[in-house]
Amino acid sequence: MHEPKSADSGTAERCQSQSEASTSAPAPQPRRFTGRRAAAAQQANSTGSAVVPSSSAKPARVITQQVPDDILHNDALNEAAAVLPANYSFEIHKTIWRIKQKGAKRVALQFPEGLLMYACVISDILERFADAEHVFILGDVTYGACCIDDFSARALEADLLVHYGHSCLVPVDVTTIPCLYVFVDIQIDIHHLVETIKLNFQPEQKLALAGTIQFAASLQAVREQLSPLFSSLSVPQSRPLSPGEVLGCTAPVLKQEVDAIVFVADGRFHLEAIMIANPTTPAYRYDPYGRVLVIEEYDQEGMRAVRRRAVEAARLAGSFGLVLGTLGRQGNPRILEHIQGLLEKRGLPYTNVLLSEVAPWKLALMEGVDAWIQIACPRLSIDWGEGFQKPTLTPYEALIALAEVPGWWEGEQVAKPGTEAYPMDYYAKDGGVWNSSYHRSSKRSDKQNSSPGPRPASVVSAVS
């Protein structure tokens, strides 16, 4: 395989100015709602499907979302916000407006480690311009959107929680206090990415674009610019995630033949999820900071072999330990209850353990357990499974060990080792019964379930 070429022969540099990124205006959307007179005229001249509001209908409740000019054009506020990186969208004005709308006096802020360096500046700005009496930063580790800590924020009597750097994995109508998600969209040098793709791939090749939520908007802009040049250029989606967005535990399965995945991120963790979900598709990672395109590899066969040994060892276990993650919203009690029921049905004893950090040394302290099932993050088992003294399974692997679903290596048609379907659908709307999504439909046919293997009759819904 050829070595990827960079479209930039100069030194690598971070894109600092939002004006450097190329942007495209979104395509105009068809009107779905119109006035009664205009709709009547439209229906007389066409077969359109405009919705005509009833004259007797109650006026809809309108919530003003537009940020007022006195906030947008506040010179002191804009000067204070100017110390933040120009290409990072922290949505300062929107956040201040939301705090004022809600009359929030106690505001909690939650950041992933990569954004903590800006926490104190943002806290000072909100405290000064949003009329909040107390703005405090939640210091516990935040790995992803599953770690949103509305429980701690509520315990601190916060009126609003602002969660930075992740998408709305846990809906705001589920959290215990009002929450605002700020994705922190990062503007990158789109022109450089476009030219790099053009330099390394042929127009007849079929490509899939994906990345982390910070670059989701950039992916759409890249697609618009490259679509006229490439025969197939997709931005796959695993709902409820945004198009192109990938989590460490949730990634789309590519539904059509794709020659390569181009993944935009500065690290491998999220990329590995889409590589596991699509083991036969070559993957390239574009680092938007170093402005480099590299070929990435993953030991698909080795990972599946390690996980298979853990599952087969757990099949012989006489007792289980069930770990419910308490880091934010990682642990789903509904999945815990489902697995408890399966163990009780089989007469297998189990012990419940609540942990915020699932560490091998900590589980090793607890004796009398033959195998562990951790309901926190699947990647703990996938990435670090060999570090645990006893088999430590994900909910999906637990259902295999308990003969609820077949293993990825089992069945009439066994795929080549390393190419078997290992689902990465932990928060996908249409994932398996081991899934932790808050967006799952309680009524859906088996045809809608894209993960391999038969499904038990019962469906595990998320805790509300």
Automatic annotation (TrEMBL):
Enzyme superclass (EC): transferase
Which catalysed reactions does the entry list for this protein? L-histidyl-[translation elongation factor 2] + S-adenosyl-L-methionine = 2-[(3S)-amino-3-carboxypropyl]-L-histidyl-[translation elongation factor 2] + S-methyl-5'-thioadenosine + H(+)
- Report residue spans for region: Disordered: 1-59, 437-464
Q: Where is the composition biased (Polar residues)?
A: 14-26
- Any one Gene Ontology molecular-function term assigned to this protein's record: metal ion binding
Q: Report biased composition (Low complexity) as residue ranges.
A: 49-59
Per the UniProt entry, what is one GO biological process? protein histidyl modification to diphthamide
Pathway annotation: Protein modification; peptidyl-diphthamide biosynthesis
Signal peptide residue numbers: none
| Cofactor(s) of this protein | [4Fe-4S] cluster
Query: One matching Pfam family, short form?
Result: Diphthamide_syn
- What InterPro entries does the annotation carry? DPH1/DPH2, DPH1/DPH2_1, DPH1/DPH2_2, DPH1/DPH2_3
* The protein's Enzyme Commission number: 2.5.1.108
Would the keyword Glycoprotein turn up in this protein's UniProt record?
no
> Family assignment?
Belongs to the DPH1/DPH2 family. DPH1 subfamily.
UniProt protein name: 2-(3-amino-3-carboxypropyl)histidine synthase subunit 1
Q: Which organism is it from?
A: Coccomyxa viridis
